[in-house]
Amino acid sequence: MEIKRIFDLLDWMCANYPKEDALAGKRNGVWEKISTEEYREKAHILAYGLLELGVKKGDKVITITANRPEWNFVDMAVTMVGAVHVPVYPTLNTDSYVYIFNHCEANYLFLSNALQFKRVQPALNKMENPPMLYSFDPIPGKNYYGDILKLGEENREKYQAQLEEIKKSIKSDDLCSMVYTSGTTGDSKGVMLSHRNLTSNFLAHIKHMPLTQEHKMLSFLPL
Questions:
Q1: How would you class 84 by CB atoms within 10 Å of its CB: exposed for 0-12, middle for 13-18, buried for 19 or more?
Q2: How far apart are CA 102 and CA 183, in angstroms?
Q3: What is the pLDDT of residues 149-206, one digit of tens each?
Q4: What are the extents of the domains in the chain?
Q5: Sheet (strand 190-194) strand order
Q6: pTM for this model (two decimals)
Q7: What is the C-alpha separation between 3 and 223, in angstroms, rounded?
Q8: Which residues on adjacent β-strands are paired with residue 178?
Q9: Is domain 8-22+34-208 classified as CATH 3.40.50.12780?
């Protein structure tokens, strides 16, 4: 199959490189492995949940988190429903967060935990229309990422066909992600990336990085 949109990777990986440890993340000091099939399944279930929430094509969905598998699930699910993923550094100051949230007109925000919420909360308090917030780890009184997965599971049949139609409608030149620069010479600039921008980059890298199924890659820089 041809990889034209980033979520095409899910089916391609399952067909060509099925693995028991496609992703791994540390929870409570223990490494948890996620298989290729589980990766695809969780991304689709999350996409069904996003559709039930009302997420639609063109919506901007921000993630602010240290590296963890949930980032990948959100990345795939958001782009499958036609929304735009806006990954943001977890170490910015309040003014930078306010600027980015407003500039990209953020609709939804996923963050990692209570510590990250404490860092972001002052920015949200300054906004007239803050994005709807969800946390990967439970925070008392805040929306929980796991509840979206539950929504997706409960509404799988309702949205299965609809999601496939949405995926078919997404073109390689559609906006996929906005990545903000460090802003060393002023306000951060939102770089608009299409599916083609991203897929052409990683497909070109394959030719120069002779990786096999036996290799493991550590993600150190923020996703």
A1: buried
A2: 15
A3: 999 999 999 999 999 999 999 999 999 999 998 766 778 899 999 999 999 987 887 7
A4: 8-22+34-208
A5: 132-135, 108-111, 60-64, 84-87, 175-180, 190-194
A6: 0.93
A7: 21
A8: 192
A9: yes
